[in-house]
Specification:
Layout: H1 13-18, H2 23-45, H3 51-69, H4 80-105, H5 107-112, H6 119-140, H7 142-157, H8 172-179, H9 189-210, H10 213-225, H11 231-247, H12 250-268, H13 272-286, H14 296-304, H15 308-337, H16 350-372, H17 377-406, H18 414-456, H19 458-470, H20 474-489, H21 494-512, H22 517-528, H23 539-548, H24 552-562, H25 565-575, H26 578-581, H27 585-607, H28 616-627, H29 634-653
């Protein structure tokens, strides 16, 4: 909207360009994406609708978009095969709409015969589950659909299983009543969060992107850090934190910001796998920062019953510790290798950047202000979307007026400007429709898993197994939880992994180990992020490796190293719950400072470099000082981090000639 000349000439051209769709499919995608976005804006800011109406329309639209973006392979053929492929995909789209429409039109009758579904109810439920599994398979891969199928099968074969896994078994009617006709399955809390809260913030992020906010945050990051040692890598951390917090996807953040940051990191001396690892770790951090947190903040608010603003407040300090740790790793690598920053002549100026994009910060201010006013989360997202659209339009009017004053004869009329603005709005709707696919489908699939868990009592059984294996030891229980998150992360996206883990392990953490509910949710959410950076899955690292031209597994190992905060900071939350729950200001600040010093000492010990290369003795000393932070006593942690800091300065004063071992 700020630069109509650079916008695609036709609304929705981005669907053909970025999604590589034929003209007809691109047009259909645009229509459904616009309809979905307008519906979400209406229900968020004008008039809310009933639960099943909201979630049913949202899921049906998302499934249709998924079948358009991920068509049958036969569509690439010609003749009969192509017609057959279009027919199959068309039937899936019709089935998606029909199953949602059936439930909403017959809602009163379905509720009236609760527990006794008729044959049509059962058939509609089976079709709804099948369509969802296929849409998820196409958009998210085979693994997530297979995991859901395993859980559905578990509901049938319960009588034949041994030990704690045994249950009485359930028929198709009872299962469809749980998964399709009620609020405990597909249309449960996960999809409700995606349909009510997450999409509106994804739309806000899309509006930021099409109006130039992504480039603004990138330029701002380079203006602030570009001249420093390893400047592009530090800029990647800052920019990824800014855009990742509202993009809703670590992988999308890698692809967008990494396209700029990774080549520049390589240019100043970072190895390709290092550059890719840094971008993956930084983009993962964006998912830990409010307001969206990859849908995590909204899900936590629903599951804990706490206000959304409380979740945002609790998530802020741990997320800052994570980004600080990645920044420290980046700085240490740059110092150890003697990497330089970028020349000032190639960097944007801070003042010029702020003058060109201050209105983006004002839009974020509107969002924060609305949160502080304790408005509903959906209304906050609605106001934020309106704010960025109005501010971008006002800025465009100002720029156009100034352009006309400078070059009146050559100034274009208002029609091209209006077309450019309309095009960008439509493109934002298209981007939101594309970006919501993995989140909404993952939440719907998670609803299947959650429904089966609730129906069979698997959550209580998992808690019993977890308690038995850990022998009541919280540390062992957290290790088991971490291993479970890694296994689930091989097949489930981050959001679905978090939902499944909190349903299975959350009761044990809270009821058996006495962990505060918000801390338990935060720990599980953080552990669920490991599929972005932990081999052999590390999806964000694989995306970064493609841009960096590096070995995917080697890139993943470096991302895993730089993202060590994903494992250490949750342990700090457990030992020092004030990092999440808050408390007296002096206590929170002291704990945060101690944690950051300890994480810095850990990073230096792992990298083998502090103010200069470390000896083996120095690495052990720093590691010991860092481990003191995991003692429940704040004094012990403070002493350990202080001694580690003093050792670094003492080692620096002891003279040159020390080399890392």
């Amino acid at each position: 909207m700020t630069n109509p000349a650079s916008a695609p000439a036709v609304p929705g051209a981005i669907a053909r360009r970025d999604l590589n769709l034929p003209v007809f499919a691109a047009g259909a995608f645009v229509l459904f994406a616009v309809a979905l976005s307008l519906f979400q804006l209406y229900t968020a800011g004008v008039r809310p609708v009933g639960l099943f109406y909201q979630r049913g329309f949202h899921l049906a639209a998302v499934e249709v978009l998924a079948f358009l973006v991920f068509p049958s392979r036969g569509r690439r053929a010609s003749g009969v095969a192509r017609v057959l492929a279009w027919t199959v995909d068309g039937l899936f789209m019709v089935a998606a709409a029909a199953t949602a429409l059936y439930l909403t039109l017959n809602l009163d009758a379905v509720v009236g015969r609760a527990g006794l579904p008729n044959p049509v109810d059962i058939v509609a439920g089976v079709v709804a589950v099948a369509v969802l599994l296929e849409a998820s398979r196409r958009a998210l891969g085979w693994a997530i659909s297979l995991i859901a199928v395993v859980f559905v099968a578990y509901a049938y074969v319960g009588p034949f299983l041994p030990g704690l896994l045994r249950h009485g078994g359930y028929g198709t009617g009872r299962l469809m009543g749980q998964l399709y006709l009620g609020q405990e399955g597909i249309y449960g809390i996960p999809l409700g969060v995606a349909a009510t809260f997450v999409f509106i913030f994804i739309l806000f992020g899309a509006l930021l992107e099409v109006t130039g906010a992504g480039q603004f945050f990138m330029d701002l990051a380079y203006a602030l850090t570009g001249r420093q040692s390893g400047g592009p890598a530090k800029a990647a951390v800052v920019a990824s934190a800014a855009m990742g917090s509202v993009s809703g996807s670590a992988i999308a953040n890698v692809v967008t910001s990494g396209a700029f940051t990774i080549p520049l990191m390589k240019r100043v001396g970072y190895k390709p796998h290092e550059a890719g690892g840094i971008e993956a770790a930084a983009s993962t951090g964006g998912q830990l920062l409010p307001p969206i947190m990859g849908a995590g903040a909204f899900l936590m608010a629903e599951y804990t019953g706490l206000p959304y603003l409380e979740i945002v407040r609790a998530a802020l300090l741990p997320a800052m510790l994570y980004m600080g740790t990645v920044f420290v790793f980046v700085h240490l690598v740059a110092q150890a290798r003697g990497l330089k920053g970028m020349p000032a002549s190639e960097l944007p100026r801070f003042k010029t950047t702020m003058v060109g994009g201050w209105h983006f910060l004002l839009a974020l201010g509107v969002l924060v202000g609305a949160l502080v006013m304790d408005l509903s989360v959906a209304r906050v997202g609605f106001l934020a979307c309106i704010a960025i659209a109005v501010l971008a339009a006002a800025r465009a009017v100002w720029d156009r007026g100034r352009q006309r004053a400078e070059t009146a004869p050559a100034s274009p009329g208002i029609a091209p400007w209006l077309r450019g603005g309309g095009t960008r709005i439509v493109d934002a709707f298209v981007l939101a429709g594309r970006n919501t696919l993995p989140v909404s489908l993952a939440c719907a699939i998670a609803g299947i898993i959650v429904g089966v868990v609730g129906l069979t009592g698997l959550g209580l059984k998992f808690s019993a197994i977890m308690l038995s294996l850990s022998q009541g030891n919280l540390f062992l229980a957290l290790i088991l939880l971490l291993l479970a998150s890694l296994v689930l992360g091989m097949g489930l996206p981050v959001t679905a992994s978090y939902i499944v883990l909190i349903i299975l392990a959350g009761p044990a953490l809270v009821n058996e180990f006495g962990m505060p509910i918000l801390v338990a949710h935060m720990v599980v959410f953080w552990f669920s992020q490991d599929s972005n950076v932990t081999p052999p899955v590390c999806l964000a690292a694989y995306a970064a490796a493609g841009i960096a031209g590096s070995d995917p597994m080697r890139t993943g190992l470096h991302a895993w190293k730089y993202a060590k905060g994903l494992y250490l900071i949750p342990l700090l939350m457990v030992v020092h719950p004030q990092l999440v729950l808050g408390g007296p200001l002096w206590l929170v600040l002291a704990t945060g400072a101690m944690a950051m010093l300890s994480l810095t000492a850990f990073a230096a010990a792992l990298e083998g470099f502090a103010l200069r290369p470390l000896t083996s003795r120095g690495r052990v000393f720093l590691l010991a000082g860092a481990l003191c932070a995991f003692h429940p006593s704040l004094i012990v942690g403070a002493v350990g981090s202080t001694l580690a800091l003093l050792y670094v300065f003492w080692d620096l004063r002891s003279g040159p000639g020390v080399h890392a071992v």
